[in-house]
UniProtKB/TrEMBL annotation:
<dbReference type="InterPro" id="IPR023368">
    <property type="entry name" value="UPF0066_cons_site"/>
</dbReference>
<dbReference type="Pfam" id="PF01980">
    <property type="entry name" value="TrmO_N"/>
</dbReference>
<dbReference type="InterPro" id="IPR036413">
    <property type="entry name" value="YaeB-like_sf"/>
</dbReference>
<dbReference type="InterPro" id="IPR036414">
    <property type="entry name" value="YaeB_N_sf"/>
</dbReference>
<dbReference type="InterPro" id="IPR040372">
    <property type="entry name" value="YaeB-like"/>
</dbReference>
<feature type="domain" description="TsaA-like">
    <location>
        <begin position="6"/>
        <end position="147"/>
    </location>
</feature>
<protein>
    <submittedName>
        <fullName>tRNA (N6-threonylcarbamoyladenosine(37)-N6)-methyltransferase TrmO</fullName>
    </submittedName>
</protein>
<comment type="similarity">
    <text>Belongs to the tRNA methyltransferase O family.</text>
</comment>
<dbReference type="Pfam" id="PF18389">
    <property type="entry name" value="TrmO_C"/>
</dbReference>
<dbReference type="InterPro" id="IPR041369">
    <property type="entry name" value="TrmO_C"/>
</dbReference>
<keyword id="KW-0949">S-adenosyl-L-methionine</keyword>
<dbReference type="InterPro" id="IPR023370">
    <property type="entry name" value="TrmO-like_N"/>
</dbReference>
Length: 237
């Protein structure tokens, strides 16, 4: 079979600036929005006519950070503690023969700015500048399967821990919300309760982590009793 080439139809503009910290599945964090910008010649009003009637859409995307990094027939999913290997096709690992992902996201609105077509979305698990290959409306009557099961992942696993902010971190959240109209404190809480730590580090209670969100570096730690946001500092590229 001859190689098949696809061109991206759009790019994601997201607050997730690096792979670490992105929720491992879509739909876990709705407080952090993103925008899909359609690229020429796909970015025109006709191509999205009627899409405003959909509350949710499917996005077919490229795991752009994993291109040319190879794949293995088996992987170690974080949900299994990073110790047990299962087949790559039984996981959503980004290291695949073809590094493609599929995410359902909420469509919050469609905007037209000059020649630009912008789709505002939420619940996305997509790195900034992720290439998008296709958009399809989510059809509740066929895409939702109430009888579906998967024994390895039957439920959402979120941390039920209080999140404490240092005085400096809280001031930064207040300032950021006033300047950017972003609910930064809620975004950080939602993100950290998804527990972005690698499985092999979850017993290292004294470790301090850093996550880049928007244009900020967020330093935090976690133990069995609480999550602590220690410091928030701006990042200048």
């Amino acid at each position: 079979m001859q190689p098949i080439e696809f061109q991206p139809i759009g790019l994601i503009h997201s607050g997730y600036k690096e792979k670490f910290g992105i929720p491992r599945q879509p739909g876990l964090v709705h407080s952090i929005g993103a925008t899909l910008e359609l690229l020429p010649p796909y970015g025109n009003r006709e191509s999205v006519r009627g899409l405003e009637m959909a509350s949710h859409i499917w996005l077919l995307f490229l795991f752009s950070e994993c291109v040319n990094k190879g794949w293995s027939p088996t992987v170690r999913p974080p949900r299994l503690g990073g110790n047990q290997r299962i087949g790559v096709f039984a996981t959503r690992s980004p290291f695949r023969p073809n590094p493609l992902g599929l995410s359902p996201v909420r469509l919050d609105g469609i905007r037209f700015e000059g020649d630009r077509v912008l789709l505002d979305i939420s619940g996305a698990d997509l790195l900034d500048q992720t290439p998008i290959f296709d958009i399809k409306p989510y059809l509740p009557y066929s895409d939702r399967i109430d009888s579906a099961t998967f024994e390895l992942a039957e439920r959402i696993e979120l941390l039920d821990l209080p999140v404490h902010f240092s005085a400096q971190s809280q001031r930064c959240c207040d300032d950021y919300q006033a300047r950017r109209q972003q609910p930064l404190r809620r975004q950080i809480e939602d993100l950290l309760r998804c527990d972005p730590r690698p499985a092999y580090q979850k017993k290292q209670a004294q470790r301090v982590y850093g996550i880049r969100l928007h244009d900020l570096n967020i330093r935090w730690s976690i133990d069995q009793e609480q999550i602590q946001v220690l410091e928030i500092q701006p990042i200048s590229d």
